[in-house]
Amino acid sequence: MRNLSLDQLATLVEVLEGGSFSAAARRLNLSQPAVSQQIRELEARVGVQLVERLGKRAFATHAGAELVEHARVLARDAGLALAAMRRHREGWLGRVRIGTGATYLAYFFTPILRRLRDAHPNIELEITVGTTQSIVESMLRNEIDIGAVTLPVDERVFDVTYIRSDPMQAVLPTSYEGVPDMVTAEYMMGQPLILEYAKATTGRMVREWLTGAGAPPRPAMELDMIEAIKSIVAAGLGASILPFESVMRRPMPEGMMTRPLSPPIPRRLGLIQRRDKEADRALGLVRAELLGLADA
C-alpha cells in the first residue's frame, strides 16, 4: 500500500466534521467532484469504506472514525514539523538545554539570561533545576547539554571549566549571644542545626565539614528550600550554613545574622559538558555567555 496523503486525510476530516461533501468543498476551496475523488482514492488506498452517504449527509464508518483520529495526530505533527523548518528558515539557531541549581539560578542567572535573550533571540533555552547529581545523571542520558553546577564532578566523563568559588556562611538568630567572629564546626555542633538535605552537593559538603568536630551532625530539621531555612533561623529555631549568594546577595531577614566559617567551605561553581558531545553554534554561544557567571 502506498503512503497516505496528508491532503486526502485533511479532506476526510473536513467531510466528516462538516457532515457533507459540499461543506468540505467550500472550506477547502475545491470543487465537490474533487473532494469526492480524494475520498474515493483514500478508500481505495486503505481498502475499506470510510464514509457512509445517507442522502446529502456524510457519516463516518467505524474505520473512518478511527482514521480521523490518526489524521488529526498526523496533521498536528506535520504542523509542528513545518513550524520547526520555518524557524530554521527565519534564522532559528537551535535549542540549548541548561541544567543548574536553584540558588545559582535565583541569584546569578538573571543577567546572563537577559544578555542571551537580547543578543541571541533565535536561541531557544530550556532550563532544568536540580542537584549536581541529578543534572549529571540527566547529562549522561543526553537530556541536558551544559551544566552550571557545584564541583567536583567526574572529569573522566565531563569537560569541566572552573568559574568561581564563594565561601559558605554560617547563619544564626540575632537572639544568640556571644557568637564568635569566626564560627567553627565545634561551635555549630553545639547549636540546633537546620540543614539542607544531604542529597544536595552543598548539603554533603556541610555535613563533612561539621563531622570535623568529631561526630556526624544530627540536624534538628532538614529542608530542601534555602529561603525556608533562612526563615526558620530568623525565627530563632536554630543555626545553619548556607551558600554565600543566598545570604549576601539578598536583604538579610530580620532576626538573622551571618558569620564566616573557620576553616572556610569553598563552594566551587563550574561549567560541565560531556566530553563526547559535539558543540553546535547555539551551544557555543550559550557557553560563552555562561562564562560570565565569573563576574555575576
UniProtKB/TrEMBL annotation:
Keywords: DNA-binding, Transcription, Transcription regulation. The keyword Transcription applies. CDD domains: PBP2_LTTR_substrate. It comes from Skermanella stibiiresistens SB22. SUPFAM superfamilies: Periplasmic binding protein-like II, Winged helix' DNA-binding domain. This is HTH lysR-type domain-containing protein. One of its GO terms (cellular component) is cytosol. Belongs to the LysR transcriptional regulatory family. GO terms for molecular function: DNA binding; DNA-binding transcription factor activity. It comes from the Bacteria. It holds the Pfam family LysR_substrate. Residues 4-61 form the HTH lysR-type domain.
